[in-house]
């Protein structure tokens, strides 16, 4: 709720703070138990920072994060550590977070032992069980990270999260580095695990076609702000914000029931250190009016569960 994550910009001889990068700038949304909430936007829009601040892998600047009623940023170290297993983060490239000298079986068991979740004698059995669940051959348990393909590594990343028996997973671009054919397999794995284990996901992607199959609701971010939030079908069939329309212009419609307006995005995303005044999208919006340059459009509910920040909607 009203989450902000600012990074100071320092300058001058004294290294004083001369401004802030507003990586996450007053973002509010809620995720229901058992749903998959998609967060989309171009790189640099603040999606990962939002995901990491929600799990308190980063400290917030302002605002509040509630997880099952718990104020996550108010916990002390010990309380946070106790909560950690229930909320897990999956990275785009799990390889970068795997120690190349540690066998996969050990790497998967590590966190379980760290948190004292299982006695040592039961860890290996649990590792094999979760590997199988995640589509990894259990006879690979003693291999090293470099012996796995990209798709298998992402299965390892997923297995590592699942090991902890979480309720909530933030998956940050988990298929972006994979071939399209492998992407579908990994997305299916996410869906299967969700059904079996009643998981809740925050699924981050720059690619709308990736979130389309998985997500119940989708939020669209730009320069640290949410510009639109809607149930999946409504967003795809009737996007309201010009930026969402632009993102969707490059995604083919499965059933061309309706003709969608096409907007080609012009120019690059401005620097988050120096965002445009008023509506942050105004420098690239084909509908820009005077008011857009001056006044920040409120992020408001325009119909049930549909939110949009645009003066023209
Ligand atoms: Fe475009 Fe104005 Fe709407 Fe921003 S507020 S998206 S500039 S029409
Ligand atoms: Mg990112």
UniProtKB/TrEMBL annotation:
It comes from the Bacteria. Signal peptide: none annotated. CDD domains: ABC_NikE_OppD_transporters (cd03257). GO terms for molecular function: ATP binding. Residues 1-248 form the ABC transporter domain. Keywords: ATP-binding, Nucleotide-binding, Transport. The keyword Isomerase does not apply. Gene3D superfamilies: P-loop containing nucleotide triphosphate hydrolases. Belongs to the ABC transporter superfamily. This is Peptide ABC transporter ATP-binding protein. It comes from Brevibacillus formosus. The lineage of its organism: Bacteria, Bacillati, Bacillota, Bacilli, Bacillales. The gene is oppF_4.
